[in-house]
Amino acid sequence: MDYKALKAKFDRLFGEGDVRVFAAPGRVNLIGEHIDYNGGKVFPAALEMKNVVLCRVRPDRKMRIAADDLSIIAEGDLDHLEEKKGKDWGAYQLGVCDELQKAGYPLVGCDMLFWGNVPFGSGLSSSASIEVATAIAMATLGLEAAGKEAVIDLVEMAVIGQKAENNFVGVNCGIMDQFASAMGKKDMAILLDCNTLDYELVPMDMTGYSIVIGNTKKKRGLADSKYNERRAECDVAMECLKKVFPDLDAMCSLTPEQFEAHKDIYPTGIIRNRAEHSVYENARVLKAVELLKKGDLLGFGQLLNASHKSLKELYEVTGPELDAMAETAQKTEGCIGSRMTGAGFGGCTVSIVKNECVDSFIETVGKKYTELTGLVPEFYVSGAGDGAMELTDL
Ligand code: GLA
Fold first, then answer.
1. Mean pLDDT, to the nearest integer, of 171-186?
2. Quick one: which H or E segment has residue 279?
3. Inter-axis angle of helices 320-331 and 358-373, nearest 10
4. Average pLDDT for the chain
5. Neighbour count for residue 213 (Cβ, 10 Å)
6. CA-based angle 366:370:373, to the nearest 5?
7. Is the distance from CB of 55 to CB of 137 less than 8 angstroms?
């Protein structure tokens, strides 16, 4: 990030003066896909790639939201936020303001300029990082303006971000992305229980191996509607399960044994498949974390492969591009596991690759992927980074 240039742009757009700077990262999910909204355990890590916002409070209740790479400036009024609902630039931030106000935060109008290097629409939670950065910025500035001490509860900020996306943007996402963005820690992955929000930081101890993220460059076109469709299918599965297990609090609380003993309760094979993925993916997460803690990276990698297969065959959220990339990666020298990460239908894969093979891996998988799909992918080698924070050292 070229902070000087950004600050100059802010001054040009909004006038000169001091700014405050807040940041929140994207995330990669190592394993535990499409189960956060079913009360499952997930295992994401915050990335080093992030979204940053420069901001300055205004004397009124107006919001102006600009981005380094966009020519439009979204506007909003903290007293009339509802009219800005949707997916346009600015809606994510205004949705966060709406949820903060509903939660009782005193807000003040603000001019904001965003910069980010989390590739957009690629399954690395660019939107969650914008939401979380906005939440900590607006909550901090609002509390300070009201003369209160700005002690920010990062878990609450994650929940606010999720609610904004659910209620304002219209994507029924779970809590994983915002939680990872808010709560990430350098060199750590987060084992998060999405039912209780209990979490454990687990060292990403991968001596000799790197995490390689592959961007299929396939935009997640229909992703949002398909995403909401999967959630609705899981609700149907849950209704069936409730008849057998009246006390079941979430689909992922079901054990594989319980699932196997009641396979005929679902109206269709598709609904059963969705439930099967959820239950076994949750079990894979627990196993994966156990193996990682023991240093059994090969075993960990195999669970990544199994997760991809389940997302492809049972949950049906991969698509030709993600399959081409993950399945090529799985067969490439030095790679011990590869899967799609995030919502699917395009976006990114995550692979674990021997350090000395990273360059050849990127070359081989990139070439083969282009042959298979006609798309030119991008690769990122990223460690786990810190979660949301104010940047003061610029
Ligand atoms: C998106 C959502 C998350 C999660 C993943 C799939 O990233 O925002 O809540 O459901 O998809 O695991």
1. 96
2. helix 269-294
3. 140
4. 96
5. 23
6. 135
7. yes
**Cα of 173 from ligand 1 centre, angstroms:** 6
In a domain, 68, yes or no: yes
Task: Tell me if residue 75 falls in helix, strand or coil.
Answer: strand
**pLDDT band, residue 262 (cuts 50/70/90):** very high
74-77 and 62-67 beta bridge pairing: antiparallel
At 120 the three-state DSSP class reads coil
CB of 10 closer than 8 Å to CB of 64: no
Contacting residues for 29 by C-beta, under 8 A, at least 6 apart: 42, 43, 44, 176, 180, 341, 342, 350
Looking at the structure of the chain, the number of domains it has is: 1
Instruction: Return the best residue to mutate from 27, 30, 35, 36 for the ligand 1 pocket (most ligand atoms within 8 A of CB).
Output: 36
Q: Which one-letter amino acid corresponds to residue 315?
A: Y
Domain limits for position 69: 3-203+386-391
pTM exceeding 0.85: yes
Q: For residues 128 and 95, what is the distance between their CA atoms, to the nearest angstrom?
A: 12
| pLDDT of res. 223 | 67
The answer as to whether 50 is a domain residue is: yes
273 lies in a domain? no
CA dist., res. 147 & res. 195, Å (int): 35
pLDDT-based confidence at residue 87 (cuts at 50, 70, 90): confident
**CB-based burial of residue 79 (10 Å sphere; 0-12 exposed, 13-18 middle, 19+ buried)?**
exposed
Any domain includes 79: yes
Domain holding 111: CATH number? 3.30.230.10
Tokens of 284: 């894979």
Distance set, CA 157 to CA 99, 129, 314, 333 (Å):
10, 11, 33, 41
Q: Is 393 a catalytic residue?
A: no
| Contact present, 40 and 281 (Cβ < 8 Å) | yes
For 387, the token pair is: 């979660």
Residue 2 has pLDDT above 90, yes or no: yes
How sure is the predictor about 224, in pLDDT bands with cuts at 50, 70 and 90?
A: confident
Cα–Cα distance, 365 to 377 (Å, whole number): 9
44 DSSP 8-state letter:
E
From 30, 132, 176, give the residue whose CB has the most ligand 1 atoms within 8 Å, as the site to mutate. 176
